[in-house]
Design brief:
Layout: E1 13-15, E2 20-22, H1 34-63, H2 66-73, H3 81-84, E3 87-91, H4 95-112, E4 134-140, E5 143-152, H5 161-173, E6 178-186, H6 195-209, E7 214-219, H7 224-230, E8 234-235, E9 240-242, E10 248-256, H8 260-268, H9 278-284, E11 290-291, H10 300-312, H11 314-318, H12 322-331
Parallel strand pairs: 3-11, 6-7
Antiparallel strand pairs: 1-2, 3-4, 4-5, 5-6, 7-10, 8-10, 9-10
Helix pairs in contact: 4-10
């Protein structure tokens, strides 16, 4: 029906693909083409399928016989030899390598919503800035395409203390030498190539050479099963949100460095050929491009890198509690903290 002002009629229309009512007394509703309807419905089905798989995946694996589920999980262990042939993996020491690693980490973490972006484009924390933290990089030519950090337990503790303090303290009470794996990231074109396992392998061998007993790591709940089965890790407490990482939920795990090699052999013995097992990729396969460090002393280059990180993210370090700023000053006496941390007691 038209009114006296000759306005367009009112068409109340229910749009099933958007689940909203459209239409107004002024403008008619926007009609979607069959192609647009198809794409919207396909996207919604894909979202539902992903959510169901994320929720039901661990239940489905647990319902299978143990050997069958492990054989299925081995499909996640794959390497693209061609893409990884020219990649060099080593412990970063220079300012350039460390900043490139933390820039990659910043970009990946902001993309998935773990952290908020910052102007410096560096994911610097009070843990990865420590000179004792080992930052490993995977480098293709002059470009860092992957990174992983191993934080040694110090007076500042470990990142997992924010969610699993009681469990980590129980390990400390046993007199175990601890470290935590954090900050794992790969460039988009290297995801699914096996590069992450290269990074974990150099971490494991470096931890063994450093005479560590246990490595703590945290993972998204849906990924924890891979760590438990493929890396023979053990759960450490319940899944909890981390307030320092946008309240994302994390499952904590621990890797017993003294027994992991033997356990990996027994777990997959006779299940598949040895060259397809995690033990082969972590301990048996010859990977000359992985340069495991021989010594673990803090070099002058590493200290210079710490000073550079302090300058780049001085806002972060100014916000640290007094006792933590004092600790930084005690381990880095050569660094001038006067302009960065003016409130640190002398």
């Amino acid at each position: 029906m038209h009114n006296g002002l000759d306005q367009k009629p009112y068409w109340p229309t229910y749009c099933r693909c958007t689940s909203t009512f459209e239409g107004s007394p002024i403008n008619p509703p926007t009609r979607l083409s069959p192609t647009e309807v198809f794409h919207r419905r396909t996207a919604r089905l894909s979202t539902v399928r992903t959510r169901v798989q994320s929720a039901a995946g661990p239940l489905l694996f647990s319902a299978l016989p143990r050997r069958a589920s492990r054989k299925l999980l081995l499909k996640y262990v794959r390497f693209d030899e061609a893409r990884l042939a020219d990649v060099r993996v080593y412990r970063a020491e220079t300012v350039g390598d460390i900043k490139a690693a933390l820039t990659l980490l910043h970009d990946v973490y902001t993309t998935v919503g773990i952290i908020k972006p910052n102007e410096a484009r560096l994911h610097v924390t009070k843990y990865n800035a420590l000179p004792t933290t080992m930052i490993f990089v995977a480098k293709k030519g002059d470009r860092v395409v992957g990174t992983l950090s191993m934080v040694l337990d110090t007076d500042l503790g470990l990142p997992a203390d924010s969610t699993h303090r009681a469990e980590v303290d129980s390990l400390r009470a046993q007199g175990l030498a601890l470290a935590e794996v954090v900050g794992t990231a790969c460039a988009s074109e290297y995801r699914g190539s096996g590069l992450v396992l290269y990074l974990y392998r150099i971490m494991v061998h470096s931890a063994l050479r450093a005479n560590l007993d246990r490595v703590v790591m945290r993972a998204a709940p849906k990924g924890a099963l891979l760590y438990e089965e493929l890396m023979v890790c053990q759960r450490l407490g319940a899944t909890r949100p981390d307030p320092l990482l946008n309240n994302k939920p994390f499952a904590a795990l621990t890797l017993d460095l003294q027994t992991c090699a033997d356990r990996a052999v027994r777990r997959f013995d006779g299940l598949v050929p040895y060259v397809k097992t995690p033990h082969y990729y972590f301990f048996g396969k010859d990977l000359p491009q992985l340069e495991v460090p021989d010594t673990f002393t803090v070099t002058t280059q590493r200290r210079e890198a710490v000073a550079s990180l302090l300058c780049a993210r001085h806002d972060l370090f100014r916000s640290l509690p007094t006792n933590e700023r004092v600790y930084y000053r005690s381990i880095l006496p050569e660094v001038d903290f006067s302009c960065l941390l003016p409130s640190v007691p002398i």
